[in-house]
Amino acid sequence: xRAFLILEDGSVFEGTSIGSTREVISEIVFNTSMxxxxxxxxxPSYAGQAVVMTYPxxxxxxxxxxxxxxxxxxxxxxxxxxxxMPSNFRCEGSxxxxxxxxxxxxxxxxxxxxxxxxxxxxxxxxxxxxxxxGCQTAEILPKLKRYRTGSVVERVTCREKYVLEGKGKRxxxxxFGAKKNIAGSLQKRGCQVTVxxxxxPAEEILGASPDGxxxxxGPGDPKExxxxxxxxxxxxxxxxxxxxxxxxHQLMALANGADTYKMKYGHRGGNHPVKDLKTGRVYIxxxxxxxxVDAGRLNPKxxxxxxxxxxxxxxxxxxxxxxxxxxxxxxxxxxxxxxxxAYLFDRFMEMMGGK
Length: 355
Fold this sequence. Notes:
Strand content: 25-35%
Largest sheet: 10 strands, mixed
Order of helices and strands: EEEHEEEEHEHEHHEEHEHEHEHEEEEEH
CATH superfamily of the largest domain: Class I glutamine amidotransferase (GATase) domain
Number of strands: 19
Oligomer: single chain
CATH class of the largest domain: Alpha Beta
Distance between the termini: 56 Å
Shape: globular
């Protein structure tokens, strides 16, 4: 079946429908990862977005037991060539069937290099995936321009708290769309992890007397999360050690008077270099974000930059000076190849008085 991708600048790409055939309008973003497409599909941070994979061949090892959450989250999936005969001893199915299962529309066979160039030059924009061959671009464009992702954290957070057992330090994990391996990285270090819904009052978390607090990744514009930011101010004031990743990093900055802004096309992929400003060492990191903390608006009495992106100089982490709090924009729990930045979980353990 023929399918079309229509961008809000009027560009139209024609390809073949994969997955669900429903029509969808979403924000179109690109990811530069060469592997890890299943981790991308199951990352809750992609809720409200349709993902373009820049690597030309996707799906060659099929669907494996490497999901970062219990389901897939993107609004749409766009690839150059989809492997229809996956080969891997861990393979449990094809991407096509996976997309159908989670009702995600996709399109294959388009020039993803040309599409990515448009998004890089003009910035992230909205688009529609449709199988309607009679659709009129002139009628669709106003709808695309009006579309807003909105507050999507509510869609991806857990509905009630739950506990992952451990005999070590007790960590409260706020789930803004947490990837599975964040809790896994803490459990690997012996922690008992209590996962809380995103809008849990600070009083409930503090009432449990955790040894540390973890703020997770998540989707959308951090400034939409006004209620969460109010509660984070209370958690910050408690003096309990806090470690935050991605959206959690941005929300903690906003809770302390800093500012965030939307990037032209964001950082999404498994090969982004970040520099530790204390040691000068550069790490290759996994990233997925379209917003960034404005380092120029930081109060140096509250926080100082700890990491910086080597490619564009944007902020990648903060060290707070008045509380035992540090935050990073990238994903130290992910494994894009090097696992060097996993030491940040060890730093968090030391902050809590553990090994």
